[in-house]
Amino acid sequence: FPVAPEEEDEGKNINLVETYLQNFYNLQKDHRPHLRQGGKNHLAEKLKEMQEFFGLQVTGKPDRDTLEMMNKPRCGVPDVEQ
Amino acid sequence: YVFTAGNPKWKKTNLTYRIVNYTRKMRQTDVDEAIQKALNVWSSVTPLTFQKIEDKIADIMISFAYRDHRDNSPFDGPGGLLAHAFQPGEGLGGDVHMDEEETWTKDGRGYNLFIVVAHELGHSLGLSHSNDPGALMYPNYAYTDPKEFLLPQDDIDGIQAIYGQSNDAVQPTGPTTPQACDPNLTFDAITTLRGEMIFFKGRYMLRKHPERSETELNFISLFWPNLPSGIQAAYENIERDEVLLFKEDKYWVIRGYDIAYGYPKPIYRLGFPKTVKRVNAAYNDETTGKTYFFVADRYWRYDENKKSMDHGYPRKIISDFGKIGRVDAAFQKDGYVYFFHKTTQFQFDPRTKRIVNQMESISWFNC
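ok -> structure tokens follow
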């Protein structure tokens, strides 16, 4: 059954966020956001790290400014040590 | 600036490079020139030298590649990832890979090859990404006209911390990135733009939306790639939804992202005498439709409806605007005119012709 546009967007955003953080912020590929390991949400932690690096508001959430930054063309070298 | 983890560096200063293949998007001579210029960015501030070789294995191998090119870091087609490079070392070490599916150019269209290669060479030499938005080693692409490019101070400090200073007698310095809350911040020009305020400084613009607390810093080239840096005066003609920007004896008219056709034009078209070489500041009085231009210690008044200068000008600034004297930048908002000179800002009431307040230049940035 066709996915409602909003849900489709959300899915796309999650993909974008995960791929970006795996590429540049060492988010482990086998991490699934809905699994909490030791109570820590790794994806949110990595998101905060990325927001801090770019001087964005550190929310841990994929807000508009963060998604906008992730969509900018850039260098493929990671921002943090792999 | 940030060193690559483990502080890798080349043990020698005379490095070799080789252009393994060429993109089909540019002439080979333009690719050679862009890469040569990118290498000069780093050799001009350190003892490093780069010698081009044609066939053997060079320290820095530069190539254009597609998608998965067997280095565990596949490219992703147009946009997104543009290029990557490897830290100093043997084998892949120092090598630069460009995504062949990008639109590589030598100007502001697509992605400027010089800018991207210069950034990647920073990695080849041992630098990682800087979080200084004005640095060459900032991760995101930002176009700067290669003719105007100067290696920012942040990158100079980083590469010299690895390889030492240049052998030149005079040490090169570079531009620093304006900080909105720096009390010493001065402005080249200021204008309103569809309800926002734009503060011009060098190749940057600080953008302030009245309903957002933070100030956004961008390159001027992000919005208007064909505009020069160092804008000297600016004003908005709200009625025509136009912003006029001035630098030396030329001016541009912009509407949103677009630069009106046929610009820049000489400022003399507006009625300035040939003795005027540049405009320091300007503002448009929305109620009277008059625009005030400030040049050194004098000012002109231009009638936007008649499209000509009013008679009886220039006049001395000090005779009509009080102790303001010289003006670096000016804009009008909510009936008041705000004049900036160095780090001081005067709030002027044109109705009573009195200065009603004096503030710091950065008072708009919620510091």
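Chain B touches chain A at residues 5, 73, 75, 79-85, 111, 116, 119-120, 123, 128-129, 131, 133, 139-141, 214 (CB under 8 Å).
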